[in-house]
Amino acid sequence: MLFERKKSLDLILATAEKRSLKRQLGAFDLTMLGIGAVIGTGIFVLTAVAANKAGPGMMYSFVIAGFVCALTALIYSEIAAMVPVSGSAYTYSYAVLGEIIAWMVGWALILEYAVAAGAVAVGWSGYANGFLREIGMGLPIALTAGPGDTINLPDGTTAAGSFNLIAFLVSLLITLLLVLGTSKSAKFTAMLVIVKIVALSAFIILAMPAVQSVNFSPMLPNGWGTPLSGVGVLGAAASIFFAYVGFDAVSTAAEETKNPNRNIPIGLIGSLAICTVFYLLVSYAAVGAMGAQPGGALSQSKEPLAFVLRELGYPQIGNWVAIAAIVALPSVVLMMIFGQTRILFTMSRDGLMPESFSRVHPRFHTPHVVTWVTGIAVSLFAAMFPVGALADISNSGTLFAFFMVAAGVMILRKVEPNRPRPFKTPLVWIVGPLAMAGCLLLFFSLGWYTIKLFLIWAVIGLAVYFLYSRSRSHIARGDAIPTLEVPPPTIGG
Predict the structure, then answer these.
(1) Largest Cα–Cα distance of the chain, in whole Å?
(2) Looking at residues 381-392, what average pLDDT do you find?
(3) N or C: fewer beta carbons within 10 Å in the chain?
(4) Topology (CATH) of 9-472
């Protein structure tokens, strides 16, 4: 039968125990890790994308996307505390829904992590290129954006890009660092989080006094939007959902967490709560101070927060906010590429991906093959596509994975009601269906073009599974716990 292959929770826990990583991260570390993964391109860059789709109504978009993520965080907290191992949604799906669903979730997570890394790199390049222009060292226009993107010139005209050189190079550099074994320590992560929080706080303090009610009218220039349209409040919510993605990266650090039953829920929910407060304040200040009508100046900016501060008469502080983004956003690229290699490493360990993907470098003790494959793919994504398109495609994979995790938690409540649950999702029979409904709503609000790309990606994934992975699965060969000499590198480093 198609769905008979499952990897029991006990087997997953036994496997993790056999190859356990050092538990060294506490609740504060996980919260900083979550904030570090979440605050990035979403708020620094996609504010402009949201303005172009929804105008001032993007305020509602942030609330809708945050609400769906809050429901999902409650769901994730239950399963992550029960199964504190790496692999995230892929591992959970393998245990509850079976191998083929786990494969599709893992395949979708490639969109979440690898494509998201490309999106963050493109967002970073927008600030880097803007800063270089400000100091008179700008690159040729064609090398500041991909062929699917346009650049606004000082004279008011636009030009097409050809290759986003800075986004390409930063992705390759981060890949090299990961191969060499340069990992982020929790202390370094916390430092970068502080840089981002200081930058956003400065923006809020300076932009808030300039808020004018006239800038909120009309509030809904494109209306609420309809599924498949990709515009309006719902279309913007589907895009800026990307701004919240990353909190689930906390669950990928489960094997390295002290007292995971307590600390993982704190990290998941705490990081999301802090980020939501900042997002609402930043979006309110940006809209109120500058206006956010579709086609307006804010909606066309590649570095919207720095742009707002420069327009308000704070060019130097605007440059400092740009510098903060330049300093801090590469850490999100690193986090996303790291998360992608961890997922592919785990899938390779289960036999579903090529064995070389779990090959460890003899000197650097890193999974160098899968890191280079992932990094080169991310670099090409970043060089060729605009940030809005990459973010939407990434969101499609994330929403699919979140939907499956919610389904899995509810199924597990039925099939294993007596299994210990250190954290229980409150009102799970309300929270779970609401989370699934929210994921579906945002998925269909991405627009038909993005959905079509996701379906093509899913068909390719099914073909790879049946032609390659199904026959090589360790479950199929009766070898559920293959030998692994060296564990994958830790986030805590």
Answers:
(1) 67
(2) 80
(3) N
(4) Amino acid/polyamine transporter I (1.20.1740)
